[in-house]
Amino acid sequence: MTFFRRMFSADYRAAVAAEAAGNVDLAAERYALAGEHAGAVRMHLARAARAPTRLAEIGALRDALRWAGDDPELRKRAAAALGKALWEAIKAEGIATERDRARVREASELLVTGDDHALAGEALEAIGDHLAAANAYSSGGLVERMEQALAKDDASQARQREESDAHAGYETAMRIGRRDEARAELVRAVASASRAGDYRRLLDQLDTALLTGGKVEIKRRGKPLIVACAADKLVLGRDPLCDLTLRAGGVSRQHAEIERTKDGFFLRDLDSRNGTTLSGMPLAGRVPLAGTGTFGLGDESPIEFELDGGVLLLRCTSGLDRGVSLIAGDEGQRLDLSPVGCGLDLVFRAGRPLLGRGSLTDVKFNDEPLGDVRVQLIRGDRLLAGGDEIDIG
Length: 393
Description:
disordered N terminus; elongated; alpha+beta
């Protein structure tokens, strides 16, 4: 609009009057109606300066940017103000989600348009996008800050490669049953990841599932439980924390204990309410187990035992626990589960149960064929072996 047409425009005159009176909202509206973009931008910037809230300030600055149109100077001024306001709002609220990161990128783009390259780079570095920050610094001629951002980007890329490699190593180790290795890979992923929450949750889940106490429960669907142990002491009783948990009414919470020494296995009563018998005779003191025989926990829970080659086998013969069995040996000793009706075998190392195919040729471990290797069992593993569906507990 030419000077004379502008001077005779009622909207323009109304805008000037409103601006003089301090009514920036009306002045912004009238300048816009008069087609006077510079005045409209100026008034929207004034509105932003007087805004009572951050949200109102950003709304006024968006209006200023809209009325700046394609005018380079007006657009630069409005973009710089809006970009700074957005960035201040984001910093106050925190950056937690992908939506927050998108808002940071919007703010940085506006700051670059407004020639505030230093603040644009700072915003981008806050979300870890060091390469984009380096580009922002470069476009503003900030060479030293550009080089620092590029160095951070190189370090970030190295951490991402480390994280990716650790995650792949974890998944492979879990699949092939090397759970201690899987845990080590998760620890490496936590150390290298910028956002390690998911890895920490996986690590907590794995730590909960790991079996390290020299005991594993083999739960065959539709068949009695098998317990395998390689502990120096085996506690029998009603307590769920016992090595062999029994449900008979006359059994105490911790009824009896079997201790394994270099001289063999020894049975003793743990001051139970109904006592322990060996071959029908009340047990007094610590008595060795040898060959085959039967001992009883109270009157309702007879247990057959068999000792062969340093391996102890217990079988519950009646009551609620009929058929439940326990097999125990030394660390590193192969425990053949065939005598308890399962063709698999186990070895304990550092309290970890390592499962092998034993006499079976077709075993599936978590839906994958199990080769001629041992896998470290954890709670929640599933097996299909010799027609039995097995859950590990």
